[in-house]
Amino acid sequence: MSAASETTAYKVLTAEQMATLERDGNFAGAPVDLADGYIHLSTAAQLTETVDKHFAGQTDLHVAAVDLGAFGETLKWEESRGGQLFPHLYGPLPLETVIAYGPLKRDDDGRVKLPIAG
Fold first, then answer.
1. What confidence score (pLDDT) does residue 4 get?
2. Residue 9's closest CA among 57, 108, 78, 58?
3. Whole-structure pTM over 0.90, yes or no?
4. What is the distance between the terminal CA atoms of the chain, rounded to a whole angstrom?
5. Helices (H) and strands (E) in the chain, counts
6. CB 75 within 8 A of CB 43
7. Could you tell me if 39 and 98 are in contact, meaning their C-beta atoms sit under 8 angstroms apart?
8. How crowded is the C-beta side of 75, counted as CA atoms within 13 Å?
9. Are 78 and 62 in contact, with CB atoms under 8 Å apart?
10. How many whole angstroms separate alpha carbon 35 and alpha carbon 104?
11. pLDDT recorded at residue 1
12. Cα–Cα distance between 64 and 66 in angstroms, integer?
């Protein structure tokens, strides 16, 4: 599947950021997002590496599954780590585009489990 054909991406959030998203109905971004000018998202295949690289040692993290079909021109696929294309959201992340979320958990192999809607 090519990057542009992905329909869901994932945002890693701290407990405080998750609470902000739930309370306010949108999320403007983490400090790194605000500094870079867009909200960093990852595909399912990129998620574990993103957590390992950018959130090492942090606890109380959450993963939000985001419906990419809800975004038009504010979503761009751009080259980043190792030449991979990552989804970047140029605008706030609305809660209504989050199709599932929950605490970050890993499987027996150490991969981040994707949140399940239900």
1. 59
2. 78
3. yes
4. 25
5. 3, 8
6. no
7. no
8. 22
9. no
10. 24
11. 47
12. 6
- Size (the chain), residues: 118
Alpha-carbon span 83 to 85, nearest angstrom: 7
Amino acid identity of residue 37, one-letter, is G
3-state secondary structure of 19: helix
Whether residue 112 contacts residue 51, with contact meaning beta carbons closer than 8 Å, is answered with: yes
Buried b (16+ CB within 10 A) or exposed e, 74-98: ebebeeeeeeebbbbbeebbbeebb
Query: pLDDT tens for residues 21-67?
Result: 999 999 999 999 999 999 999 999 999 999 999 999 999 999 999 99
Q: Which residues contact 53 (CB under 8 A, 6 or more apart)?
A: 81
